[in-house]
């Protein structure tokens, strides 16, 4: 699809360390979308290709849809579904915000349903955290849906050649990832989900992340 000629970039939504910049944009084909433009010197096309085609085929309302990717003026970029609210991190960072238990249960259920679909495709996300779970309210619905996002570290599980290098965000990484020769499985995502839920409820980490 000719994304280069069908997109108009608007405001910067976020700057992603070690990745690039995310813009709000308008697409002739999809309407309002998000566009992530990667830093060329920190973009590995082979690594990116491993999971993106599988993710594009996932049809789950709690996983951020990926419309496609290409190069624009020699910069690799990804066109994604637009989420019109902030991330879970906005809630987790504000101790004065205490969500009702029914709201917490609903959000957790959505995240778990999204991760079940993600894992059923054979992928490991490897960077589950509050900041990578977006919030979206469909216009006129009065409801909020989560959108699991940021698949830069996502990998296909290969039982014959399991992942053995470090990736993720430190406070959300499971202990086995720090072993000399770690074996990375979908269990690292489950651990990260536990940390995510804990931080969402208590507004702090279960351990001192500075140590």
UniProtKB/TrEMBL annotation:
- A Gene Ontology BP annotation from the UniProt entry: autophagy of mitochondrion
Q: List the residue ranges forming a coiled coil, or say none.
A: none
This protein's source sits in the domain of life called Eukaryota
The Protein kinase domain covers: 7-211
Keywords in alphabetical order: ATP-binding, Kinase, Nucleotide-binding, Serine/threonine-protein kinase, Transferase
Q: Which PANTHER family match?
A: NON-SPECIFIC SERINE_THREONINE PROTEIN KINASE, SERINE/THREONINE-PROTEIN KINASE UNC-51-RELATED
Q: Give the protein's recorded name.
A: Putative serine/threonine protein kinase
Its taxonomic placement starts with: Eukaryota, Metamonada, Preaxostyla, Oxymonadida, Streblomastigidae
């Amino acid at each position: 699809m000719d994304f280069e000629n069908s997109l108009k970039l608007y405001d910067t939504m976020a700057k992603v360390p070690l990745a690039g910049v995310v813009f709000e944009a308008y697409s002739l084909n999809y309407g309002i979308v998000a566009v992530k433009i990667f830093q060329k010197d920190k973009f590995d096309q082979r690594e990116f290709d491993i999971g993106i085609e599988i993710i594009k085929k996932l049809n789950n309302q709690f996983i951020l849809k990926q419309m496609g990717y290409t190069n624009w003026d020699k910069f690799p970029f990804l066109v994604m579904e637009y989420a019109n609210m902030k991330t879970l991190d906005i809630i987790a960072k504000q101790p004065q915000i205490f969500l009702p238990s029914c709201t917490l249960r609903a959000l957790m259920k959505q995240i778990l349903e999204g991760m079940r679909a993600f894992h059923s495709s054979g992928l490991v996300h490897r960077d589950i955290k509050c900041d990578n779970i977006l919030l979206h309210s469909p216009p006129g619905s009065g409801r909020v849906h989560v959108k699991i996002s940021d698949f830069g570290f996502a990998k296909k599980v290969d039982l014959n050649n399991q992942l053995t290098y470090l990736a993720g965000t430190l406070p959300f990484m499971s202990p086995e990832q720090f072993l000399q020769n770690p074996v990375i499985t979908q269990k690292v995502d489950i651990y990260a989900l536990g940390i995510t839920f804990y931080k969402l409820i208590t507004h702090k980490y279960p351990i001192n992340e500075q140590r």
